[in-house]
Amino acid sequence: MITIDFGQRGNRTLTEYVYESIKHQILAGPLREGERLPSKRALALHLGVSVITVQNAYLRLIDEGYLFSIEKRGFFVSDIARHLHAADKSGMEDAASSAVNGAGGEAFFADFTSNASAPGKFPFTLWARTMRQVLNSRDEKLLRRTDVFGAVELRRAICRHLKAFRNMDVSEKQVIIGAGTESLYSMLVQFLGREGAFAVENPGYHKAGEIFRLNGAACVPVAIDAQGMSVEALELSGASVAHVSPSHHFPTGITMNYNRRTELLAWAGRAPRRYIIEDDYDSEFRFTGKPLPTLQSIDSNARVIYINTFTKTLSPSFRISYMVLPRKLTEDFAEKLGFCSCQVSGFEQFTLARFIDDGNYEKHINKMKNYYRSLRNNLITAFCNSRLVEQGAIHEENAGLHFLLTMKTGCNARELQEKWRAAGINIPLLSEFQYGGCRAASGSSDSFVVNYSGIKRDAVAEIVRRMSSALYGE
Description:
This protein is an alpha/beta fold and 474 residues long. The protein contains 15 helices and 18 strands. The strands form five sheets. Strands 7-14-13-12-11-8-9-10 form an eight-stranded mixed β-sheet.
């Protein structure tokens, strides 16, 4: 039975104090995951309070994800309570210190190298409610193994999402669920084979190339120009697979125009077994204008494999991604890799499917888009109102969650980077994303990649003040 010391209640209402006391016992450990709580009437009698007091406390704990109920069986401690505790603890640690740890363990006031989502923006209450609904269904499918394609319910939900957001007409038979894009890249090397080289954008997202290499495939960097990957350079590279991010290239922010897209598709169609991996990462965050159609939606030769993830829209720890194969490749994929199981738990897949179908995912994207637009605007406005604007310019800020900052100070860009790092501001240089360890010779024309997704809005003014002070000695 739960015991509560009402001598510590103070001015709090009975309902509020019962709620706080039970929540504390869940987070502190006495009440463990899956443990059944007393009935409302039994606990009310034990504590000497009304049934309605306990009922309201239980309902609040259910709404926040700490408890779930099963009809005619009672109330139980949720299996996600520990995750809520971890998030609460993380949030408190963030509030207690304005520093953010860099990759090397060095503490920075603001770290623009991180691709973390906005702290505290994960929809815990909605997600917890959806998890309870799925768990309460007690559907046997939750316990069954899912094949390499993943749960059909989630694949259908993704198809509906792609139709609404990217105007893509695809079948659930084309969709494969993976535990992050890394697992999907690995599967693609196994599926497409290691005989041909994989081309990656230069500068670009290094992790893709590293995964291709780790899986035994040759990886060749191909230069990009103002429109995206150079098709001429791609032809000369000898690659048979090209990995591109046409909607919003990282790190340059370039959006591939329609002509370059058709040129790239033509390259794929000129030889057998040529394919394009279209990474549509962070395409949900476009702030002005209409997005161009995906490569796959304008591909008539069935050569484009589309990849996206829920990492940026939900959380970096949310390891669910997906790819969409051309229809003619689905049978070959099943034949070659059908012995594998999906690496994402069925419970998470069913929860995400319901989260999408209930409209909660769309609402969350819209909320995050508004938040990031405001954060971007605050950061740019603060920059424009500072002395930094005298020698700096911002580029490619209308899509995605990063932009470029070019500083023409007459000094080496790496020296400026070190000045900012000494002031607690860590911003990577564009040249750091070149393959082969290339760096700008003089640094004076190099740009900084401002990945602002993990920056706190209330820290913007101080960030810009520190940057300006480090440069001008104010």
